[in-house]
Amino acid sequence: MKALITGASSGIGRDIARCLSKKGYYVILVARSESKLNELLKDLNGNGEILIADLSNDSDVDKVISKCLTENIDVLVNNAGFGVYGNFLATDINSELNMLKVNVVALHRLTKEVYKLMKTKNDGHILNVSSSAGLMAGGPLLSSYYATKSYVRSLSLGIYEENRRDRSNVHISILCPGPVNTNFNEIAGASFNLKSLSSEYVAKYAVEKMFKNKLLIIPGFTIKLGIFFQRFICTKWLLKIGYRIQVKKGNGF
Q1: What is the pTM of this model?
Q2: Domains present along the chain, CATH in parentheses
């Protein structure tokens, strides 16, 4: 059994790789940092290999797709992603475009090509990592990031229903965590004020639910509760509340 995990050098991706390795999977670790991937591979007793790739680069995405097809992988975890914090008119367009390439374009391409592969053998799991942000009304001051995560959720939901109607044995899952202790804050330029879950807990929960063929995977009772109650609040109020939360993130960094 083989699994490929993008964004495997730290956080949720790293810990999902650990969980899958414990379950006997040969893991293919994808990220930009060779040193971090090699360190993780040592922790996994060499049960896998590394693939250095920058998913904002089309040719590197080609390389990862080729690896997926060559290895005939059984599990794909699209975890790579990052955020850009700030007022939409003030954020750097090049940073945002790179974020779109990683969070949306690379994930879209990998999902499509690996899904084709899995459909031919009628077996496999795809776990697309979105965020609780993808379930919210919007994210002022993280507007582009929220949009990418909404894309991941919407794309995966559509594929799920198409796949279900085909009575396929391929399974699509969407991980939507809230705040997690990762290096997201440093990259985005913001900090969470809500209590964060550990990446180890989120990874273990995600893998467990993925293999139970759960569609929407939302770790943490607080986030589940918040998502439930937002349906009773009008969109404009949700955006006002969201803005205040995001301002605190920026002030806390």
Answers
A1: 0.88
A2: 2-251 (3.40.50.720)
Look at residue 182 in the predicted model and tell me its pLDDT: 60
In tens, the pLDDT along 53-97 reads 999 999 999 999 999 999 999 999 999 999 999 999 999 999 999
Give mean pLDDT, residues 27-40.
96
Render the burial of 217-226: b for 16+ CB within 10 Å, e for the rest.
bbbbeebeeb
Is the pLDDT assigned to residue 35 strictly greater than 60?
yes
**145 catalytic, yes or no?**
yes
- Given the residues 85, 145, 146, 160, the one annotated as active site: 145
In the sheet that holds 216-217, the strands lie side by side as 48-52, 26-31, 2-6, 75-78, 124-129, 170-175, 216-217
- Tokens 């930009």 label which residue? 32
For residue 226, what is the enclosing H or E element?
helix 221-229
**Which 3 state secondary structure label does DSSP give 140?**
coil
If phi > 0 it is left, if psi is from -120 to 50 it is alpha, else beta; for residue 241 that is: alpha
Residue 1, SS3 per DSSP: coil
Rounded distance between C-alpha atoms, residue 184 and residue 175, angstroms: 16
pLDDT tens by residue, 241-253:
777 877 776 654 3
CA distance 143 to 224: 21
